[in-house]
Amino acid sequence: MTAELSAHGLRVEFATRTGRVARALDGADLIVRAGEVVALVGESGSGKTTLARALVGLLRPAAGEVRWDGRPMNRSARGLKALRRQVQLVLQDPLGALNPRHTVYESVAEGLRIHKTVAHSGRSETELVAQALASAGLRPPEALFLRYPHELSGGQRQRVLIAGALALQPQLLIADEPVSSLDASIRGEILALLLKLREELGLGVLVVTHDLGMAWNIADRIAVMYLGRVVEAGPTEDVLTSPRHPYTKALLSVVPEIEGLEPVVLRGEIPDPTRIPAGCRFHPRCPALASGEADAVADDCRGTRLAILSGEPEGHRCACHLVASREEAPHDPASRAAT
Ligand SMILES: Nc1ncnc2c1ncn2[C@@H]1O[C@H](COP(=O)(O)OP(=O)(O)O)[C@@H](O)[C@H]1O
Ligand SMILES: [Mg+2]
Q1: How many CA atoms lie less than 13 Å away from 267 in the CB half-sphere?
Q2: pLDDT by residue (tens digit) across 263-309?
Q3: Which residue of 177, 221, 245, 260 has the smallest Cβ count within 10 Å?
Q4: Residue 65: which of 98, 91, 112, 30 has the closest Cα?
């Protein structure tokens, strides 16, 4: 069966210094399967990193559930260890994530030792480390064994982190902002590497990014998050060429690679998750509500909660009162007959 990691109505809360509870995730649904690249996008503060960490069991949800292959995550030490071998989290900021005193060889071998992978593989540790480095595009691998992180370029460090993950032969990678600290020239290479791993190893990849242009380039599906919840999701092509949610439209309007869109400047900042607005969580910043376009549903926008958007991979879905009201409106009988 295809490996599948999923979040169902996940809620993750943090206590803050002011004594209020920050609900960093507030009903997040998402499914990632082996063999597909899913991009999780949204402004900084929307909960992307929190969702990535909750998916690998680093955070315990206050409500909702993470499932691996359809079964609730086993949170025993053993269960989590097994999950983290199959679902590898690749951190952002490769300089911070690599131990400066460890050679490349040691960094990649560390996971193999923790998970005792060598004993099960019938191959030597050196072979497995070399193979992982080569898969991450570091060739010849032996030339890097004894190097330290400070002797490498940013792109090489990111590849070493990816090699450390690949050494364990996972089924899914979760990459949190994998290229945000890299120069533009190297970004494309790392993204191409992620795509190659999907092709050659059948890996599933969840790429967390605030960059919609990057999502466009590599993802099969996209999930747009706002204030702890996915507000629009679907095949990348559909979501990015015909976005439905006013938030997605605003994010897209300022992507430099996309021409011909009138830039929509969102008012204010993403709210603090200790104060999630009533009704639609996006309503205080919604351009459609501000312009009068959503007048017919304005009371709902301000006061009626939206259902959680299902994480099912099929279809293009959006959580928005205005979009829902248009979909419910009677269709032109001629076009209905045609479909
Ligand atoms: N450990 C924490 N304690 C308190 N608040 C947190 C913590 N981690 C994240 N948050 C808050 O949760 C929200 C989502 O954060 P995060 O998941 O890092 O978003 P993103 O990765 O999309 O930028 C932010 O408002 C952030 O301040
Ligand atoms: Mg983040």
Answers
A1: 10
A2: 888 988 999 999 999 999 999 999 999 999 999 999 999 999 999 99
A3: 260
A4: 30
